[in-house]
Amino acid sequence: RVRPLTCTETRRGDRRVVHSLGDGTIHVSATSPLGDRRVFDAGSSQEAVFEGSGMRQLVELAIDGETQPAAPGLLGLMQRSFACLLEQSQSRGSDLALSASYLEIYNEQVRDLLRPGPPCALPLRWSKTRGFYVENQLSVDFKSLEAIADLLLQGSQRRRTSAHALNRHSSRSHALLTIHVRSRAVSAHPALGTWRPSACPSKQGTLCFVDLAGSERVKETGSSGELSVEANNINRSLLALGHCISLLAKPRGKQMHIPYRDSKLTRLLARSLGGSGITLMVACISPSSHCLSETLSTLHYASRARRVTTRP
C-alpha cells in the first residue's frame, strides 16, 4: 500500500518514485518493476484495501474456524474487519462467542494492553498442544462493534509511543490484537419457533491483527538513549522475522530449522507464518524519493513473505 506524500516531504520537494502500473505491478524509479498480488496507490480508500486485499475472506475463514473433535470512509481495516465479523455472525445463524486479547512486545517484553495497572512483563510459554502462548493474558468478551472498538482504543492508548525527528507518534513496540471466535451452529425448533443447539460440532477460529513497528535508522531519526535502545530492539526482532520468512520461503525439500525462538515476535507469529494459519501482509511504503532505500527494503521483505506456502 502506497501512502500519499506527507506535508514535510512535499515542502522538501521530494519526487514521487513509486507508481502503480495497474496490473498488480509496482514500479520504483531506477529499478525493474516488482510484481505483487495487489497494489493500492496513494488514492486508494480503506474500503478498497479491505475488499481488494482479501481481508474480508480472512474474517470469514476465522468464523468458519476449524472443527473440534467431540461504516464511514475513514474507518480503518481493523474496524471494518470487526464490523464484517459481527455482520457475518448474525447472517450465518451461528451462536458465536467472541473475545479479544491485546498485547505489545516492547524491548523484548510481552505486555498486556488490556489489563489495568502499570504494564508488566508476562511470561511466554510453550506447550505441544498450544504452541507458544502468553501466560496470564487477559481475554475480554464482547458482543458489539462499540465494545470491541473501545477495547482497541483502550489498548492503543496504553501502547508505548515516542517522538523522534521523523514521527511525533512513533510506535516503540509491536502490537498483536487477537480475536477468538467460538461457535456452535443453532437451528430453529419447527413447532415452538425457538432456537436450540444443533448436533453439529463446535468450531473455533482466531483472527490476529499484527501492527509491526517500522525499522529505524538511528542516524535519520536522531534517536539516542532510551529511544536508541528501543530502535535496536525493534530492528533486531524485524531481522529475526525476516530470517524466518527467508527460510520458510525455500522449497520444502530444502527447508532447515526455523529459528522462531530468536525473538518474542517470531515465537508469537510462528503459527501464522508456518503453521495452520493463512496470513495476509500489507506492506506500507512511501512514494518519496527520500525514502527510496526503505521502500525497496520493504518491497523485498514482502516479496519474500509472498513465497511462503502453508498447508492449513
Describe the structure in your own words.
The chain has 312 residues and is α+β, with helices and mostly antiparallel strands. The chain has 10 helices and 15 strands. The strands form 4 sheets. Strands 4, 5, 6, 7, 10, 13, 14 and 15 form an 8-stranded antiparallel β-sheet that branches. It has a 3-stranded antiparallel β-sheet with strand order 1-2-3, covered by helices on one side. β5 and β6 (109-112) form a beta hairpin. α3 (55-64) packs across α4 (77-91).
Secondary-structure element string:
HEEEHHEHEEEEEEHEEEEEHHHHH
Judging from the principal axes of the Cα atoms, what is the shape?
Answer: globular
Radius of gyration: 21 Å
Helix content: 25-40%
Q: How large a portion of the residues is in β-strands, by DSSP E? A: 15-25%
Largest sheet data: 8 strands, antiparallel
Number of helices: 10
Question: How would you classify the quaternary structure?
Answer: single chain
Predict the CATH topology of one domain: Kinesin
Mean pLDDT: 83
Low-confidence stretches: none
In terms of topology, how is this protein built?
Blueprint: H1 7-12, E1 18-20, E2 25-28, E3 34-35, H2 46-53, H3 55-64, E4 66-67, H4 77-91, E5 94-106, E6 109-112, E7 121-122, E8 124-127, E9 131-134, E10 140-142, H5 145-158, E11 161-162, E12 170-171, E13 174-188, E14 195-197, E15 203-211, H6 218-221, H7 226-248, H8 264-268, H9 270-274, H10 292-306
Antiparallel strand pairs: 1-2, 2-3, 4-15, 5-6, 5-10, 5-13, 6-7, 8-9, 11-12, 13-14, 13-15
Helix pairs in contact: 3-4
Organism: Nycticryphes semicollaris
Keywords: ATP-binding, Cytoplasm, Cytoskeleton, Microtubule, Motor protein, Nucleotide-binding
GO biological process, one term: spindle elongation
